[in-house]
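Model the whole thing, not chain by chain.
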Amino acid sequence: MSAARWLPAAAVLALALVPSSANPFYRLAGSDGDGREPTFDVPLDPAPLRAARFPDDLPYITEAPGASPLAQGNLKAAGQLYLARQLPVQDRRRAEVRVQYRDGRIVFAEHG
Amino acid sequence: MTLVPGVAAVNLVFAGVGYAFLARSLRARSWAERVSWAGVALLIGAGTVGTLVFLAAIAGVRSTLAVAAACAVAAAAAGSFLRFDLPQRRARPSNSLLLGVVGAICVLGLVGGFRSAPWLDDAWGIWLPKGLALWHHGLDERLFVPNGEYVAFGVPDYPLWWSIVTSLDVQAVGDVDVRAMDAQVALLTVAFFGAVLRLLWGFVRPEVLAASLLLLACCPELWRHVQGGIADLPLAIYVALSVLATVLWMRTRAPLHLVVGAFSAAVALQIKTEGLPEIAALALVGIALCRDRRLLFASLAALATAVPWLVWRAVHDVPSRTGDVDFGRLDRIPPTLGSVFGHLLDPTEWLVIVPLFVVLALLARRPRQLFLPGALVLVVVVAYWVDRDAIRYVLDTSAYRVIDPIVLTTAVLLPLVAETFLQQREPLREDRRLVGEP
């Protein structure tokens, strides 16, 4: 079998190395690549959530006063993603930790 | 572990389970032939382990790696007793030029899967969090049934196979890394290419098979969906695999084809709610086409696997969109048809897969081949018709992806109708009936 038969496949692989947004093979290979965090719809750094060490089953609530519904939804999802060991509650009085969204930053507030 | 070894380890286990099912059948075969079944093995293994862990979750067991490992061992042990006579089909040497390009595109798609985070917020906002909750809390009604006390997940009626499989990946990675979702879809997609190649090998001349796979591999929408981390693509993969294996069974009556067809249908039922009407519609069409009792029993067995989740939903009074339908608003049908066919026929999304399939089926005088994807179109159109949400909103946010099973089903049938079409234009030869009609 001639090695020339594999040239088109090799060309496809080589083309993917050309960094251009107009290059479909480059885009197919993931372009510049993403990080491990979700691509949130709003500015949201989940680092505090990732670093949090709360007890299992701790009830928490997410709060984004004055923020858009999109930001509230993203915060809720981020909580369910990174605080999967804990339990999200709807009633503020039952929450032992409040996860708050302030200008793109996440801060924690203890109950009370 | 980090992303690549973690996801790779999970999928090696999946492939191992799949190979256990095929081990006795492949015992006397060459290593090259054994490797050629890798795509089928991975899809069987992922389907088996994901489904068993899902059933265990319904029974009250948390979806951990340990439970998955136990399910994998049990499935492999049970599967190793199976033996099928693999259909023997000889083909001329392959067109390695085209297949090499398909392989290169698959390699890039795989690399892209591991390097991209899902662009669809449902992936990291609903599917993966559900899987992580199943890991830490099990199928806890506080989180999986809407209530006024806890924050429950969206679309609570959806089955949990995709959440579980991606959660296993994240557990193996050892940290929340949403790229694991795209990596998993990419692996399933590449396995799908391998499975279609393996199953159709010898039934279709190599150049037709290679060209058909290349057409699918070149579809921009396919890889965009891979990088979206969406569940619609795994659903489409198992629906299409079910259709392909069943259509082949109609020609070979080989038990392996019937088993793979029914098994893939059963897995599809565990992925999304639309899997149930889609598989039921395909089963009706299939039974009407071949009128064979074995297909009826296989279809019923597959459909029965949906029962545990349906019972759990009923017992826990889980609300479902399917329980609140309105057949009175016929004005929803025209925009639905416009949107669905707009996506199906848009050459910038799925190239010419669907129109080419329709034209070839008509030219080859095989209009019955249109019934299978047609049944899926009917299900999608009816689903939009009877839904209560604003039609423009639901079409704009989902029509582009709920057509995935239609497109992939068409894609796997395309080589068969192309082969039929070409044979009809050749002088009579000994193997003229290589591809018959179901």
